[in-house]
Amino acid sequence: MASMTVSGTHVVEVGPRDGLQNEKKVLDVDTRVALITRAVDAGLKRIETVSFVNPKRVPQMAGAEEVMAALPRRDDVNYIGLVLNERGLDRALEAGVDEVNVVVVCTDEFSMRNQGCDVAEGLARWERIAERSKAAGVFTSATLAVSFGCPFSGEVTADTVIDIVDRVAQSGPDEIAIADTIGVGVPAQVRALHEGLVRVAPDVRRRWHFHNTRNTGYANALTAFDLGECALDSSIGGFGGCPFAPAATGNIATEDLRYQLERSGVDTGIDGLAVVDAATWLSAELDSPVQALLGKAGPFPG
Which of 269, 249, 265 is nearest to 18 (CA)? Predict the structure, then answer.
């Protein structure tokens, strides 16, 4: 296993998981491994590669173990596996993931549709998974879904999210990710949630997950960056969405986020043109258009 050595503001590539799970075309194991290999070759160091969920519910994520077994292993690259329950954790640990990411949902209705349990049971599952994952020596993060708004319950207040952060933090996560699952968030919400994170979990790494559904994803990402050191999720080409959230379109794009961070003084270590090439290739594989803009406009300076 790789060690968690990435620090400072950096990009977490979620395309192989969140980028693919809502696409109509299901990619085979070899193609998904090729996508991840392209991400590694482009300089990405943390990559959410697979989701250990029921393939009948999310067929795009079938074959997680086969993907993990075929990946190029490097000491400086961490492969993240998403899990929803203890069975998923068993599979993730056996497959040799470097990091476990657990989803905790902030509203009961979305939690029931996504995980088949309410928020209270989701938190209990998190506590059990965190204990076992940490005992196994694996970097463990919790992603709080629908932190900015829920497609079924509507507004989600910052106080609601921070109460859940407080509960999650009691299990000692290495990182907490705040997710705008359906792309409704705005910078004012980012600032309010950041204030709460710093207050109740000051020593836990911060990570943010934004979608650009309503054209606010990049503004939110740069707001989070301005507020302090953090990890930012993005997807090659801007692909992605949640199969359990109506009209939840793509993640912010890795190449566009990389451009903004580099122009803001962050050395991301990412080859932007290699990501653009990967997005073009992935678009052809999925028969789906690239959402990112960098490949259309080109870098600056040229």
Answer: 249
Mean pLDDT within 221-240 = 97
Distances (CA, A) of 268 to 54, 70, 241, 297: 34, 26, 24, 20
Domain ranges in the chain? 10-297
Contacts of 64 (CB under 8 A, 6+ apart): 50, 51, 52, 81, 91, 95
Quote the pLDDT of residue 240.
86
Active site residue 242: yes
Read off the pTM. Answer: 0.96
Asked if 150 contacts 110 with a C-beta cutoff of 8 angstroms, the reply is yes
CATH topology of domain 10-297: TIM Barrel (3.20.20)
CB 271 within 8 A of CB 38: no
H-helix segments, the chain = 29-41, 64-70, 86-95, 108-115, 119-135, 158-169, 187-200, 217-227, 254-263, 272-286, 294-297
The Cα 111–Cα 216 span in angstroms is 24
Choose the catalytic residue: 106, 150, 230, 242: 242
